[in-house]
Amino acid sequence: DAFRVIVGTFSSLDEINSPSFGRMIAILETLAKYRSCVVMLDLECNDLVNEMFSTFLSIA
């Protein structure tokens, strides 16, 4: 599942010195731009949405 891979990348967002940090930010911006959370909810990926926001809150 593509969304599972994308959400998995967010666990590394706190590693700002990582060479792939820029890519992770670009993925996050793309998800926001196209409102992918809404698509994920429409596809009933509730667990993934929950995991994504839990990851965001743990990093913040």
What would you say this structure looks like, in words?
Keywords: DNA damage, DNA repair, Nucleus. It is found in: Nucleus. The structure is a single chain. The chain has helices at residues 2-9, 21-33, 36-42, 46-59. The mean pLDDT is 92. Helix 1 runs parallel beside helix 4. It starts with a helix and ends with a helix. It has one domain (2-10, 19-59). Helices cover 70% and strands 0% of the residues. With 60 residues, the chain is mostly helical.
Q: Assign an overall shape.
A: globular
Instruction: Please report the total strand number as a whole number.
Output: 0
How do the SSEs run, as a string of H and E?
HHHH
Given the structure, what is the number of helices? 4
Rg from Cα:
11 Å
Averaged pLDDT, please?
92
Q: Could you say which structural class the secondary elements and strand pairing correspond to?
A: mainly alpha
Report the biggest beta sheet as strand number plus sense, adding barrel if it closes. Answer: none
Helix proportion range:
over 70%
Number of domains: 1
Q: In what range is the share of β-strand residues?
A: under 5%
InterPro entries: Pds5
Keywords: DNA damage, DNA repair, Nucleus
GO cellular component, one term: chromatin
Main location: nucleus
